[in-house]
């Protein structure tokens, strides 16, 4: 990218899209638009009415650095510090996984099952909350529920707290707890819904993930163990004693685990209901505690 030419917004987007495409980006135009809007301090939609404008030198310098880092593999969400999820904006950094569209199916399942309970006394826990995307989104849509957000990473909990504050949810609505799964909860804590997007990637599967995930996102939030089902199996055992009668455990998992679902679900549950994502892959499991 020559610094002597006149680089309008339109020209920058065209050049950068081609550059990122050659570098292996699967969404080069979107990446270019998000990064340029961020560098210019604008909303992405504003770029479409500004193609003939020339950004400031400061913005161009910032943009070049962002593009360089993106081409090296850094995810766009980490570069700009946020990600959209369920039409809400969440702060993200390398301490937390980047929320993905597939996980929105978990939110939909949770909101649907919540209708079966008294909204005034609904108790929900989000296990492995990360950025807080699930906990904050569900709490925002269920105005009277009490949410507990758990993570064993203090750094992740700090991000989740900031996201709750950003969306005007105080600790009277969301309580945060550092814990390995449900271990640190008070002995009498009970819930109607246990939600989780836990680590579910096997070690061999991890080696096949895109470099942008493998090299930049927190491994602790991705890798479950050699099999991939280890954390889920532990969670389901702990959830049994924490759920109210006929409560639900709703979790995300790898489509590769679907053929073996019965082997790690265990007893004490009604037949699992599996929801597919937009790609047609098994993604969300809903389990109801048996009577």
Q: What is the rounded distance between the termini?
A: 66 Å
CATH hierarchy, class of the largest domain:
Alpha Beta
Can you tell me the CATH architecture of the largest domain? 3-Layer(aba) Sandwich
**What fraction of the residues are assigned to beta strands by DSSP?**
15-25%
C-alpha Rg (nearest Å): 21 Å
Strands of the largest sheet, in order across it? 5-4-3-6-9-11-10
Low-confidence stretches: none
Q: What is the residue-averaged pLDDT?
A: 96
By CATH, the superfamily of the largest domain comes out as: Vaccinia Virus protein VP39
Percent helix among the residues? 25-40%
CATH topology heading of the largest domain: Rossmann fold
* Assembly state: single chain
How many β-strand runs?
11
> Looking at the structure, what is the overall shape?
elongated
DSSP summary: helix tally: 11
Structural class based on helices, strands and sheet pairing: alpha/beta
Largest sheet: 7 strands, mixed
Number of domains: 2
């Amino acid at each position: 990218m020559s610094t002597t030419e006149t680089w309008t917004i339109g020209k920058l987007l065209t050049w950068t899209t081609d550059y990122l495409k050659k570098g292996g980006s699967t969404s080069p135009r979107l990446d270019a638009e998000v990064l340029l809007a961020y560098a210019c301090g604008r909303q992405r939609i504003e770029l479409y009415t500004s193609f003939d404008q020339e950004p400031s030198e400061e913005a161009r310098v910032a943009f070049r650095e962002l593009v360089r880092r993106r081409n090296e593999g850094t995810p766009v969400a980490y570069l700009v510090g946020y990600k959209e999820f369920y039409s809400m904006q969440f702060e993200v950094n390398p301490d937390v996984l980047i929320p993905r569209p597939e996980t929105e199916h978990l939110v939909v399942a949770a909101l649907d099952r919540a209708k079966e309970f008294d909204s005034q006394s609904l108790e929900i826990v989000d296990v492995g909350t990360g950025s807080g995307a699930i906990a904050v989104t569900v709490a925002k849509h269920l105005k009277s529920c009490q949410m507990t957000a758990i993570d064993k990473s203090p750094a992740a909990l700090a991000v989740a707290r900031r996201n709750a504050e950003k969306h005007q949810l105080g600790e009277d609505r969301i309580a945060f707890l550092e814990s390995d799964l449900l271990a640190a909860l008070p002995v009498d804590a009970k819930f109607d819904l246990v939600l989780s997007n836990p680590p579910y990637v096997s070690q061999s599967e991890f080696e096949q993930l895109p470099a942008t995930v493998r090299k930049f996102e927190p491994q602790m939030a991705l890798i479950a163990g050699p099999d991939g089902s280890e954390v889920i199996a532990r969670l389901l055992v702990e959830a049994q004693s924490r759920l109210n009668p006929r409560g639900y455990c709703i979790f995300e998992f790898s489509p590769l685990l679907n053929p073996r679902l019965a082997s790690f679900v265990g007893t004490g549950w009604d037949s699992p209901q599996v929801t597919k994502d937009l790609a047609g892959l098994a993604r969300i499991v809903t389990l109801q505690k048996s009577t």
